[in-house]
Amino acid sequence: MEGPIKMTLLIACLLILLQQGESASFFRPETARLSLLDSNTISQSVIDAEYAVRGPILDRAMELEADLAAGVDLPFDEIVSCNIGNPQALQQAPLSYVRDVLAMVLRPPLMEA
Q1: Which parts form a coiled-coil structure per UniProt (predicted)?
Q2: pLDDT category, 111, cuts 50, 70, 90?
């Protein structure tokens, strides 16, 4: 694996862990390798993280969807869920940089195309 790509991946992993509240003390250059994170070394707080979509906005959206389905006359025809990380519902192009880097790290021949 090429040095810059490997470092990009390691930095991305480090940033994710730091966002989850982890200390940077686990990161040592002499142990930096792709197998740094696995089910035995990843923080329990990352494993236990939950992403629950709920709350008053979702409740109201569900009420409005039911009204639309029942034929209630509303000033709109559909509900677009923007609270669940789906910007493509609003025609935003997918953000693919991290996915592209991971693909090249895991399959280096992709860089030759």
Answers
A1: none
A2: confident
Chain position carrying tokens 């409740």 = 59
Each domain of the chain, given as residue ranges in start order, spans 3-50+95-112
**Residue 76 CA: distances (Å) to CA of 1, 63, 80:** 52, 14, 11
Question: What are all long-range contacts of 14-18, with beta carbons under 8 Å and residues at least 24 apart?
Answer: 16/46, 17/43, 17/46
- Terminal CA-CA length for the chain: 16
pLDDT for residue 64 is more than 50:
yes
CA distance linking residue 1 with residue 20, whole number of Å: 27
Position 103: which residue type?
A: A
Is 19 strand, coil or helix? helix
d(CA 39, CA 86) in angstroms, rounded, equals: 28
